[in-house]
UniProtKB/TrEMBL annotation:
The keyword Transport applies. It comes from Mesorhizobium australicum. One of its GO terms (biological process) is transmembrane transport. Residues 86-295 form the ABC transmembrane type-1 domain. The chain crosses the membrane at residues 37-57, 90-111, 123-147, 167-195, 216-238, 276-297. This is Spermidine/putrescine transport system permease protein. It comes from the Bacteria. It is found in: Cell membrane. Keywords: Cell membrane, Membrane, Transmembrane, Transmembrane helix, Transport. GO terms for cellular component: plasma membrane.
Length: 305
């Protein structure tokens, strides 16, 4: 009877705890984010699942064979042409990210520490390039850096270059310049936000303790603004690997990237499974490179301190 009494008393208590949880702020929070979470999962997760599924199939013209195979990954990983394109894309992406952050940090630092009451005006000026489409900005650089652009036309007119492969800026260098210009504004904003959160009294304390401007910057400002630097690095690194418009416009044969091969497989080549395998391989490689870059950046900042 005692056990029965305990069971009876435990039932209402359990229901009371359940009811209190459903009425708690935690449950309300879960309810609030459930719809956006499911929407994001459907819009972001399902396409990735579809791409991964396609990567294990084969296709002959319009006929898709859903038999499981790893042949697409064998080609994507071990074929020399795809290896070269992937390594070139990763190198270009990493270089563009480093150049972009290196150019963006001084601008963000100036606006944050010396912008004064004109900070909003400076930020407004930085967003002006966003008023035009990305394609128009790339086309503008094509006029300057393309094979028939201003620079290469002048060089060919002087007899310095005669073939597209010999053009001074019709290669990966032109891709680097164009991508750096296109993404530098995206890097300024997160770095600026991170610098705005730096407590100025900490910098004053470092100065009072004998640190000079450079030492206080390396020991206080840079480490505290590291989240913004990492955000800027990732914001630039991830999309540039998948850019196929810029290489096609200004890159020539030496500036082609892995995204151009993926676009060709989904387009003219009509081999979506191989394109999906290339996409998955590139995603994994970018994740590894981004993680390594973040760890290396943190280690470098700790060493500078």
């Amino acid at each position: 009877m005692a056990a029965a009494a305990e069971g009876v008393s435990a039932g209402p208590a359990s229901r009371a705890r359940t009811g209190s949880f459903l009425q708690s702020e935690e449950a309300k929070g879960y309810t609030l984010i459930s719809a956006p979470f499911l929407y994001a999962l459907a819009m972001l997760g399902l396409p990735v699942v579809v791409v991964i599924a396609h990567s294990f199939w084969t296709q002959t013209y319009l006929t898709v064979d859903r038999t499981f195979t790893l042949e697409n990954y064998r080609q994507a990983i071990f074929e020399p042409i795809y290896q070269d394109l992937l390594f070139r894309s990763l190198w270009i992406s990493l270089t563009v990210s480093v150049l972009t952050v290196a150019l963006a940090y001084p601008v963000a630092y100036f606006i944050s520490f010396h912008g004064g009451r004109h900070k909003n005006i400076w930020l407004f000026v930085i967003t002006v390039p966003f008023w035009t489409s990305y394609l128009l900005r790339v086309m503008a650089w094509k006029v300057v850096l393309g094979y028939n652009g201003v620079i290469n036309s002048a060089l060919m007119g002087l007899g310095i270059t005669t073939e597209p492969s010999d053009a001074f800026l019709y290669n990966s260098t032109a891709v680097l310049i164009t991508l750096t210009h296109a993404w530098v504004a995206f890097a300024i904003l997160p770095i600026f936000v991170s610098l705005e959160k730096v407590d100025r009294t900490l910098i004053e304390a470092a100065t009072d303790l004998g640190d000079g401007p450079m030492r206080s910057f390396l020991r206080v400002t840079l480490p505290l603004s590291l989240p913004g630097v990492i955000a800027a690095l990732l914001i630039v690194m991830i999309p540039t690997v998948g850019d196929y418009v810029t290489p096609k416009m200004v890159g020539g044969t030496d500036g082609v990237m892995i995204a151009n091969a993926i676009q060709a497989q989904f387009g003219r080549a009509m081999n979506k499974p191989l394109g999906a395998a290339l996409s998955v391989t590139t995603m994994i490689a970018v994740c590894l490179m981004a993680g390594g870059a973040v760890l290396a950046l943190r280690a470098a900042v700790r060493a500078l301190r």
